[in-house]
Specification:
single chain, mainly alpha, three-stranded antiparallel beta sheet, globular
Amino acid sequence: MIEQSDRKFILAFRLLMAWTFLYAASHQVLNPKFSAVAFLSHTKTFHDVYAVIAVPAFDPALTFLVSYGHLLIGLSLLVGFMVRVSGIAGILLLMTYWTAHMDWPFIENQNNLIIDYHIVYSAVLLFLVAKGAGHVWGLDAWASNLPLFQKNRFLRALVS
């Protein structure tokens, strides 16, 4: 059983991470000039890895996925629904950014040696997934009691 004070921290971390993803989404979804390919074309350490997808032909699809991925992750964390899925997706997205910002051993600039906020945010999301954060004042607790989710193993795994 999760202590009451732990529940407050879990909720606080979930809402803080929701804000982080929703704020990022606002700059991408509402900015017609945002391009995921433009961002990935400036990578250094992993340039050869990202060069495969950082081509103009992939730009519309990749930009859509990144922009609306941020939005869906943020909304999921905000309402506490499918936090397991959004947390894992958020970690994958953050690790992509971490490697994309890397100029080994620095991340973004000379002030971040290997570890930066992408790693910290990923650790917070991993904590939220491990603690079942959607069950702490979130919709995962409600959804897990619905017959649809109880009868289907796949759906039940998404909210457990």
